[in-house]
Amino acid sequence: MRTQIKICGLSSIEMVSAAIDAGADAVGFVFAESPRRVTPEAAGRMAESLPESVISVAVMRHPDEHEVEEVVKALDPEFLQTDVEDFDHIQLVGPCRPLPVFRAGRPMPEKLPRLLLFEGPVSGSGEVADWSQARALAAKTRVILAGGLHPGNVGGAIRTVRPYGVDVSSGVESSRGIKDPELIRRFVEAVRKADRQKDFIGDVS
Predict the structure, then answer these.
(1) Structural domain tally of the chain?
(2) According to the model, what pLDDT value does residue 158 have?
(3) Containing domain of residue 83, as a range?
(4) Whole-number Å distance between alpha carbons of 8 and 27
(5) 66 partner at 20 to 30 Å CA-CA among 3, 22, 50, 190?
(6) What is the mean pLDDT of each run of 10 residues along the chain (205 residues)?
(7) CATH no. for residue 153?
(8) What is the chain written as a DSSP string?
């Protein structure tokens, strides 16, 4: 199975183009407190260059209803990503779907959503998430693995966790908040190499 690739924290047209050119499946625009934060209007302008094959994700953290409405109106994202508990009070309308974030070290509910993002304790910190906990989740549902991934370790993450997708932000940056096109390219190549090896050898531990 082809691992889905999400490049997160894009804040310029050039960064978006680098992600598209490298072969990303999804891009994330951050609206939470972060050096990668963009305005809804800026994200909307950047998303205009996205081909139909690339998914846009609005990345938030504990937003209120007004903030969600503002982002959804300006960006029209396919997914809204925020902590799982936030969806207790968020009502999404239209085609936008939830991408709940589950964080390492916290107890997991018995009933899991069909798709989730598994993250370290703090988003964008570069801290590697607990791969053993992620693997247990990936055996039950579709997991997008985030947290401390970079070109040098993403192949091992795919072999260990068997995720549905992988998400990278700080791991492809030349400096905090600034994406490096070469690192993005190397990250995507590492994912595709791991996919080829997995397909050739078989999905084994």
Answers:
(1) 1
(2) 97
(3) 4-201
(4) 6
(5) 50
(6) 96 98 98 95 96 97 95 97 94 92 86 94 74 95 96 97 96 95 98 87 52
(7) 3.20.20.70
(8) -PPEEEEE---SHHHHHHHHHHT-SEEEEE-SSSTTB--HHHHHHHHTT--TTSEEEEE-SS--HHHHHHHHHHH--SEEEEEGGGGGT----TT-EEEEEEETTSPPPSS--SEEEEE-SSTTS-PPP-HHHHHHHHTTSEEEE-SS--TTTHHHHHHHH--SEEEESGGGEEETTEE-HHHHHHHHHHHHHHHHHHHHH-S--
Write down the residue that tokens 């050096």 correspond to: 35
**Joined tokens for residue 139:** 């055996």
